Amino acid sequence: MTAYPSPGLRIMVNSLLKSLKNLSDVMLLTIFFLAVFAIIGLQLFMGNLKNRCILKPDDMDLYWWWNTTQTDVKKLNETTQAERMLYIDNDTHWQHDEDDPIICGMAGSPGTRQCPLGSYCMQTSINPNSGYTHFDHFGYAMLTCAQLITLDFWEDVYGKVRCPGAMFVNS
Q1: CA geometry: angle at 145 spanning 40 and 127, to 5°?
Q2: Backbone phi, psi, residue 97, to 5°
Q3: pTM for the complete prediction?
Q4: Nearest to 52 by CA among 101, 112, 86
Q5: In a structure prediction context, what are the per-residue pLDDT tens digits for the chain, which is 171 residues long?
Q6: In angstroms, what CA-CA distances link 138 with 28, 40, 124?
Q7: How far apart are CA 122 and CA 50, in angstroms?
Q8: Under a CB-based contact definition with an 8 Å cutoff, are residues 125 and 131 in contact?
């Protein structure tokens, strides 16, 4: 028994093996462009996809730290900061639009999606799509760019990046 049962298959396999060098050049060029666009994405969108509309707490014990500014948060003790982040990262406290949590932009920024009444835009530590879609890390930025160039559910990424108010995307 031979590895090539037909002469046509032998020609196809030899042609494929000879074209691997040219394919490696194309792959190298593709990875280079992915890296360039990932770096651009890191610069433009880092941290933007973590903003969520958080519902105001009903419990008055939690309310005292609700209105703290970012500089006041640094003054809180570690236990209080942990409680605050647990509240903010709990997706049951997020305002939802249909099934997806609302990604918002900070108030006062032009073109941002604002939160409905009773909720405020705060930064969580969780990115969309189980943490796979974001531009906070170079590897994940490359993965997101690969998703965009293959046009695989690209409109979801576009919609999420557009919400925090990147003016160059909102046109």
Answers
A1: 90
A2: -115, 105
A3: 0.70
A4: 101
A5: 456 677 788 888 888 888 888 888 899 999 999 999 999 999 988 888 888 888 877 765 555 555 555 555 555 556 667 777 888 888 888 888 888 888 887 666 666 778 888 788 888 888 888 888 889 999 999 999 999 999 888 888 887 887 665 555 544
A6: 17, 10, 20
A7: 8
A8: no
> For residue 37, what are the contacts with CB-CB under 8 A and spacing of at least 6?
145, 148
Q: Could you give the C-alpha distances from 71 to 17, 74, 130, 152, in angstroms and in order? A: 60, 6, 29, 40
Q: Which amino acid is at 36?
A: V
Please report the sign of the dihedral spanned by the C-alpha atoms of residue 134, residue 121, residue 115, residue 112.
negative
Of 116, 139, 111, nearest to 48 by C-alpha is 111
Q: Which residues of 49-83 are buried (b: 16+ CB within 10 A; e: fewer)?
A: bbbbbbbeeeeeeeeebbeeeeeeeeeeeeeeeee
Task: Give the residue from 94, 84, 110 showing the smallest Cα distance to 52.
Answer: 94
Rounded to the nearest 10°, the torsion over CA 105, 110, 114, 117 is 130
